[in-house]
Amino acid sequence: MKILFDGRVLEGGSSGVRDIAAGIVAGMRALQRRGEVDFTVATVGETPETDLRLPARFFMHMSLPIAALRGSFDRILVPRQTVPLLSAIRSVPVFHDIGFIERPDLYRETRAITATTKLSSRSRTALAVSQYTANRMNERGLKKNVIPMEVGAVHRVDWVPDRVSPYVLCIAAQEPHKNLPTLIEAWGALGAAGATLVLCGRSGTDSRAVQQAVSKLPNPSAVRIASGLNDEEYARLLSGASGYVQPSLYEGLCIPAMDMAAAGVPMVVANASNLGARFAGAPAGQCIDATDAQALTRALAMLLHDDDFRARSSAYNSSSVLMTDWVEVARRAVGAM
């Protein structure tokens, strides 16, 4: 099969979509070396993976489908939930989540992504990053028979917790669906926790609420906000965490939680969306109703001070979440196409 891949996201900064795209490319390149697929990456600028450069203007709706037709490609693979409006070559999108459709109250401007999601759901074949996203699309009538790629951990974390200055980590953009103000409130209720809560992620719609929640704490220095880290700094931050917390109200996948779980880091996660689905069998107290600040405080106390819980959480996480095999992901994608 001859596949043309929309590689523009590889030109951008760090993001979950970029991580998934890079993984797909790695898997497809491996299949290409084995002669199982003919794979071409199209971009606007130059990247280490670029095979074909196309004009930026009307890239999705003109440049990409025309290049696919002229190059006699069998499929266009788009690592996002969008496709060309018109194309003689069948397009295959990758769906990440539909939180903006299910919980629009938690997201900022949703019209554009809702429109492209509904457009791409008409594709004959579609992939999803998780079984949860595939199931929800089916249940909401957006699309049946979405093929889950079953992505697990993406980045390998060498867990060596900082014993001198312990901290609990949360990787999350400051957006409403990440539920950070409730997390900060719950952390403040711990009192002298003996550790710091580190929130790592870009600013966003909820930044003001986050700042206000921190300012109300008896000890605002108990929460540290980190952003703009380079790859090495980010890796060190993940490696040194005593524990991990993800109180999100909606996640289609949540790569940071998968990465930390695969490393055996003990954690507390919300029982909503993909987190609830992936960690349903976790030890009691790990997968909770994160809208309840008191329940979250109790879970965080266990995460910090209950050695038995930490050991059980660590063992469960490392056995239930594995590093993603991108060759198998690519092979599944090709089989679906």
From TrEMBL:
Residues 165-316 form the Glycosyl transferase family domain. GO terms for molecular function: glycosyltransferase activity. One of its GO terms (biological process) is lipopolysaccharide biosynthetic process. Transmembrane segments: none annotated. Gene3D superfamilies: Glycogen Phosphorylase B. Keywords: Transferase. InterPro entries: Glyco_trans_1. SUPFAM superfamilies: UDP-Glycosyltransferase/glycogen phosphorylase. It comes from the Bacteria. This is Glycosyltransferase. It comes from Curtobacterium citreum. The lineage of its organism: Bacteria, Bacillati, Actinomycetota, Actinomycetes, Micrococcales.
